[in-house]
Structure formats: structure tokens, C-alpha cells
Specification:
Homodimer. By secondary structure, this protein is an alpha/beta fold. The chain contains 14 helices and 15 strands. Strands 4-10-9-8-7-5-6 form a 7-stranded mixed β-sheet, with helices on both faces. Strands 11-12-15-14 form a 4-stranded antiparallel β-sheet, covered by helices on one side. The structure holds pyridoxal-5'-phosphate and (2S)-2-amino-4-(2-amino-3-hydroxyphenyl)-4-oxobutanoic acid (3DJ). (2S)-2-amino-4-(2-amino-3-hydroxyphenyl)-4-oxobutanoic acid binds next to loops.
């Protein structure tokens, strides 16, 4: 047992020894708030406001239309994509930024179905796939986790309807086992938005490869929190938002990853002029651009892209492995503080207590959770409530301290005491 004074000493010594502690200065934070909602909307990195103001006054105000090419606006989706790439373990040229996560899910899922269905050539798994089930006329289903974030389920349903696939919902833990020769596409969240459970994507990727199914991973709750390693996993497609751990700001554009060797065959359904091989030829016929540009649709959200571009500078020199180590240590410490300080039985942790099995958040079930979160927020501890009974606390390792974890647990104990 440790008491509050032991925990305070421990938090201080952990903060003093934290190799990432200096990164907090890269953010403009309210000193009176412990911000545990960076898994919904990341904090504001320093420099973003000034850069956006400069783009508005100079690039838009003075350079005007010349900025599309003169100031690099046109190529920003790929350039910013290449800045996200190392954070998710992708080599350059495979990530494009633009549109919302929902829209990118739609592009990826329909594109995945077209890759997987037999009239579109061999399955991406190649020889391994053809021995383990291979391309067959019986690929009829799109698998999705049954507790997925709502938009993923809704978009999967639209994509299934459009491609003639049948949507099958199975628990996330059973996704890999559910993959079979009938599976065309699997949509999986690497980290569950509610419980924070980390899915074994490597196992899922192996099962999909063996069966010739195409994987679309939603990285919203894992990118920037842990090493995803998309290239190493060998998954085909991925999407994610940039306003959580990547701190791109409200409405920041999402991103789409298309594995390099599949780009020439990737046919996403939204044939907009920014995905055209020669957009300014203004031709009637659509001819898809090569490479990752094929993931683009229409005019990019330049002001948001610029904000994201600058926000990503907060990652300069940061190793994602170090972020993961701190994330586990911070969340472990928070759980210990909750155990020590919160009255027994007042909360139940629904997040795996084993660090390696969770993302960077802790969800605690508790009676009257919505009111409890409102009171916490009132007292400067910002997390969120997710129905029916969850207090959700996200730990963004770039700007949170062990002292913040302790303060959050202390205030929680007061509210529940
Ligand atoms: C797993 C997941 N997918 C998608 C989204 C959001 O999609 P969009 O950016 O289109 O609102 C979120 C969060 O809002 C999410 O947590
Ligand atoms: N995307 C959001 C939004 O547009 C409004 C409010 C919250 C969000 C979120 O990101 C929610 C978040 N994905 C979640 O996991 O609950």
C-alpha cells in the first residue's frame, strides 16, 4: 500500500526521470487542467496558430491562387502523409491526407473489396493466399468487429451494400478466427475506442493473408500512441484520423494508407479530379493518377492541413517506442493511483490491466458515469463519458506527466468518496 504522499513522491521522481518530459513544452496547455481527452481531440501544439495565421494573411491574402503551386498547397496531402508515415511505420509514398476518416473508410473498404474479388486479379496475399483458400468465387463477406466505433460500422454497411458483400459482425477478439475463404475484406480497429483493448493485428494479418482476404485497419486510437508498423504487418490498407494523438486540431483531415505494391490496382470509388492523372487537362474521362495520389478526391482542406503539418513538428526526434513505453508506464501508474485512492468497488476497470494488451487509455465503469465525468470536468480533469457507464481517460504521452495521472485519480477519489 502507498499513501498519497508516497504517490506524490513517486510521481515527482518519475517525471524527473521521464525522457519525454521536455516534449510538454511543445504544447500550449492550460495549467489548471489535466487533459485526459487527447484520444478524442489532441492538445494544441505550439506554432500552429502562428503558422495558420501566416498562411491566411500571406499565402491566401497576398499570394492568392498562386499558392496552389507556389506555396506547395497542391502537394500538401502527400507531403503531410509522408510526415505521418514514420509514426505508423510506413515507408514514404503510401500515405495521403485528406477528407474525414469516414470518407477514407469508404474509399478503403470499397477499394479493398475490388482488390479481393476474383474479377480483379489474384488476391494480394499471392501464392500463400492461393494455397490457403485463394481467390474464389465464394468471397461474399465483409467482416467487422461488432463493437466498432459507430461510423466504421455504418460505412462498412454502405460499402457492403455497394459491392454486394454481406456484412458480418463478430467480436473483435474473434475476427482472426472468423476469417475464411468466404471473406473478402476485414475491417479492424487496432485499439477499441471504448475499452482501449489492443487487437493483435499481426495475428489478424496472418489469418487474412492465409485466406486471401484484404485487411483495412482503423488506426484512429493507435497512431501516435504505439508503434503500429503498418509495413511490417503487411496489411493492405489503413485509415486514421489526425485530431487525436497526432494533434492536428478539430476537423483535421484524416489519412489513407495504401501499401505500395497495391497502388496500381487500388480503385477507390470516389473518382474526383484531384485523383486524376492530369487534373488540369480537364478531360471528360477519368484516368486515375498513379501512386498514393489515387487516394485523393477533391480540393484539400488547406488551412487544416497546414495546422496538421505544423502540429506534426511536435514529433521531431521522437521515437514511437519511447512513446509506447511512457504510455504503458503512465497508464499503469494511473491504475495504481486509482486502486490506492478511489473507494473500493466504486469503479471497475474495463481496460486490460496488462499494459501490452491496451492502447493509451483507461476506461472505468462506474455508476452514474455521465454525472461523475461532468463533475471531474468541473474540477479541471477532462476525460469523457461513453455510454452506458464508462469514464474514459486518454493518456497522450507527449504532454502528460505522472503528476497529472495522480491528480486525476485524486480528484476522482474525491468525487466518488
Ligand atoms: C475508431 C474511429 N473511427 C472513426 C472516427 C471518426 O470518423 P470521422 O473523422 O469521420 O468523424 C473516430 C472518432 O471520431 C473513431 O474513434
Ligand atoms: N471526432 C469527434 C467529433 O467530431 C466530435 C466529438 C468527438 C469526436 C471523437 O473523436 C470521438 C472519438 N473518436 C471517440 O473515440 O469517442
Amino acid at each position: 500500500m502507498s499513501d498519497l504522499s508516497d504517490l506524490t513522491t513517486e510521481a515527482a521522481s518519475r517525471d524527473a526521470a521521464d525522457p519525454l518530459a521536455h516534449l510538454r513544452d511543445r504544447f500550449d496547455l492550460d495549467p489548471d487542467v489535466v487533459y485526459l481527452d487527447g484520444n478524442s481531440l489532441g492538445a494544441l501544439p505550439r506554432g500552429v496558430a502562428e503558422r495558420v495565421a501566416e498562411v491566411i494573411t500571406k499565402e491566401w491574402g497576398r499570394d492568392l491562387i498562386r499558392s496552389w503551386f507556389g506555396n506547395g498547397w497542391w502537394t500538401a496531402p502527400e507531403r503531410v502523409g509522408d510526415k505521418i508515415a514514420p509514426i505508423i511505420g510506413a515507408a514514404p509514398g503510401q500515405v495521403v491526407v485528406g477528407d474525414s476518416t469516414s470518407v477514407n473508410l469508404f474509399k478503403a473498404l470499397v477499394g479493398a473489396a475490388r482488390l479481393a474479388l476474383p474479377d480483379d486479379g489474384p488476391p494480394p496475399g499471392g501464392a500463400e493466399a492461393s494455397t490457403g483458400g485463394g481467390a474464389s468465387n465464394a468471397r461474399t463477406e465483409l467482416l467487422v468487429d461488432d463493437e466498432t466505433f459507430p461510423t466504421d460500422g455504418y460505412i462498412a454497411s454502405s460499402a457492403a451494400e455497394l459491392t454486394g458483400l454481406v456484412l458480418r459482425r463478430v467480436p473483435a477478439a474473434g475476427l482472426a478466427a472468423a476469417i475464411g475463404p468466404q471473406t473478402a475484406v476485414v475491417l479492424a480497429n487496432q485499439v477499441d475506442y471504448r475499452s482501449g483493448t489492443l487487437l493483435d493485428l499481426a495475428e489478424l494479418a496472418r489469418a487474412a493473408r492465409a485466406a486471401g482476404a484484404v485487411v483495412v485497419a482503423d488506426l484512429c486510437h493507435s497512431a501516435g500512441a504505439l508503434p503500429v508498423g503498418v509495413d511490417a504487418l503487411g496489411i493492405e490498407l489503413a485509415v486514421g484520423c489526425s485530431y487525436k494523438y497526432l494533434n492536428g486540431g478539430p476537423g483535421a483531415p484524416a489519412y489513407l494508407y495504401v501499401r505500395a505494391d497495391l497502388q496500381s490496382r487500388f480503385r477507390q470509388p470516389l473518382s474526383g479530379w484531384h485523383g486524376h492523372v492530369e487534373p488540369f487537362a480537364m478531360r471528360t474521362e477519368f484516368e486515375r493518377a498513379g501512386g498514393i495520389v489515387a487516394g485523393r478526391v477533391g480540393t484539400p482542406e488547406i488551412l487544416s492541413l497546414v495546422a496538421l503539418d505544423t502540429a506534426l513538428d511536435a514529433w521531431a526526434g521522437v521515437e514511437i517506442e519511447a512513446v509506447r513505453a511512457k504510455s504503458i508506464a503512465l497508464t499503469d501508474f494511473f491504475l495504481r493511483c486509482v486502486d490506492e485512492l478511489v473507494p473500493a468497488g466504486a469503479v471497475a476497470c474495463v481496460t486490460p490491466v496488462e499494459g501490452a494488451r491496451r492502447g493509451s487509455q483507461i476506461a472505468l465503469a462506474c455508476a452514474d458515469a455521465e454525472r461523475v465525468m461532468a463533475e471531474l470536468t468541473e474540477r479541471g480533469i477532462i476525460g469523457d463519458f461513453r455510454p452506458p457507464d464508462l469514464l474514459r481517460f486518454g493518456f497522450a504521452p507527449l504532454y502528460l506527466r505522472y503528476a497529472d495521472a495522480l491528480r486525476a485519480a485524486t480528484v476522482l477519489a474525491e468525487v466518488l468518496g
